[in-house]
TrEMBL record:
A GO term, aspect molecular function: methyltransferase activity
Superkingdom field: Eukaryota
Protein name as annotated: Histone-lysine N-methyltransferase SMYD3
Keywords: Metal-binding, Methyltransferase, Transferase, Zinc, Zinc-finger
An individual GO BP term: methylation
Record-annotated MYND-type domain positions: 27-65
PANTHER family: EG:BACR7C10.4 PROTEIN, HISTONE-LYSINE N-METHYLTRANSFERASE SMYD
PROSITE patterns, per the entry: ZF_MYND_1, ZF_MYND_2
Source organism (scientific name): Mizuhopecten yessoensis
GO CC annotations on file: nucleus
A Pfam family assignment: zf-MYND
Length: 451
């Protein structure tokens, strides 16, 4: 029996690569951020905190180093580097038995390659061709494994790779883990994956009577998506369809695709039905058949295009992103509720842009709206909800809304103690915020008594 919050398994990676966007900001060995990172003097690509990290990574980097030096100043894509490391592992005869802290459920040789499905997938075939072309430059064409072996390695890699995230669930790298890759997907998982550096930890988010691999499920994707979107992503990336309870229930989809009541006299909404029509307003019963579906669909497409542009601009000026979000929100507010999935994604962008630009009141307004939708659409004890609550609570504390901040931060603590555990740096930061909040409330109370 495992209780929610209990560790189910931990594993170090079989192979791993720091994301290109984090290069120079994080150590290529431990993935911790740092300012004075030491560059490898040979390949001039990877960087380390210190000699200890360089030594720890040498087994992984030794074969890659001359390959990177050969093509410098060009740096291969993350997927190319990951596959290069897998090829080097195979050449060394390493099937994964040497991975530290792995529970030993499987080896890399046990992985399925899905080669027949990949050969029928034009996008994957083209991706493999591009990777092999670059690998030829790195290793030399004569040193590449035979074509059938390359296909096997590629298939195992793309199906089983994990996105390594920081404490706030932001992508910082990619890796292959052996035993954790045995865990199945569910859109209603009973466990969650988090990382501390490159070490992967799986914790229970529900009580699990018999915690065997067959009884543990994690989510392979972001659950803030409709059934159709999730099924499409799973089929395209992993070649299967999900049959979990959430994928059989269209209720959440109805809310994710809901539109505001068009009567003009209430604050209700119309849920989208399975047949793509709209139900009557949940407040005033205004008839859903009066809604012009074509116009709603046009707004959906326009909103998706706006989100695409905002995503491109998010790399630049956060104030510009915030302005674009406000403009898009104004255009769509006549149709979309805060729970419409397009609106939720927009609110998230606005929230993050508000934080990055220091517009704290604006950020709080958007963050409060985001957390309400997150609670509705993410499963219980989701780290995404906990992190969002922590960010909102931190802003409330900064704006001296201490009483509300304490409530929000304690709600975050309830979730993050389960998903991340109490030894994670993120949880320690949260504990510091709660302590600061209670201390400021105590000081204010003392002053009010004296007055």
């Amino acid at each position: 029996m495992k209780r929610k919050g209990d560790i189910l398994l931990q594993s170090e990676p079989f192979v791993y690569v720091l994301s290109h966007k984090e290069r120079g900001r994080r150590c290529d060995s431990c993935f911790e951020s740092g300012e004075d990172l030491k560059r490898c003097t040979v390949c001039k690509v990877v960087r380390y905190c210190n000699s200890a990290c360089q030594k720890a990574d040498w087994t992984s980097h030794r074969g890659e180093c001359p390959c990177l030096k050969r093509v410098f100043p060009d740096v291969p894509l993350d997927s190319v580097r990951l596959m290069l490391k897998l090829i080097l592992k195979q050449k060394a005869g390493d099937n994964g038995e040497s991975v530290k802290k792995d529970i030993g459920w499987r080896k890399f040789s046990d992985f399925l390659s899905h080669s027949s499905k990949i050969k029928s997938d034009q996008q994957r075939v083209e991706q493999l061709s591009r990777i092999v072309f670059t690998l030829g430059k790195l290793l030399g064409d004569s040193n590449l494994p035979p074509a059938n072996e390359l296909l096997e390695i590629f298939g195992k890699m793309v199906i089983n790779s994990f996105t390594v995230c920081d404490g706030e669930m932001q992508s910082i790298g990619v890796a292959i883990y052996l035993s954790p890759s045995l865990l199945d997907h569910s859109c209603e998982p009973n466990a969650v994956v988090t990382f501390q550096g490159t070490r992967l930890t799986v914790r229970a988010t529900k009580d699990i009577q018999e915690p065997s691999p067959a009884n543990i499920s994690i989510s392979y994707l972001d659950q803030l998506a409709t059934i159709a979107e999730r099924q499409k992503q799973l089929q395209e990336q992993y070649y299967f369809s999900c049959q979990c309870n959430r994928c059989q229930d269209n209720g959440l989809d109805g809310e994710m695709l809901s539109v505001r009541c068009q009567s003009g006299c209430c604050r209700g909404y119309h849920q989208r039905q399975e047949d793509d029509s709209f139900g009557n307003c949940n407040d005033c019963s205004y008839q859903g058949n009066k809604i012009r579906k074509e116009e709603v669909d046009r707004f959906c497409v326009a909103c998706q295009e706006s989100l695409r542009k905002i995503k491109e601009d998010s790399k630049n000026d956060p104030l510009k992103v915030l302005q674009l979000c406000k403009q898009c929100e104004e255009e769509q507010k006549q149709f979309f509720t805060d729970h419409n999935v397009h609106c939720v994604h927009l609110l998230v962008k606005a929230f993050d842009a508000g934080i990055e630009s220091g517009q704290w009141e604006t950020a709080l307004k958007y963050g409060t709206r985001v957390q309400e939708s997150y609670r509705k659409f993410y499963p219980p004890n989701s780290p995404h909800v906990g992190i969002e609550l922590m960010k909102v609570g931190k802003i409330q504390l900064y704006l001296e809304q201490c009483q509300q901040a304490l409530i929000t931060l304690q709600q975050a603590e309830t979730i993050l103690s389960i998903t991340h555990g109490r030894s994670q740096p993120l949880y320690e930061d949260l504990s510091d915020l709660i302590h600061r909040c209670t201390e400021e409330m105590r000081v204010k109370m003392q002053f009010s008594i004296q007055d």
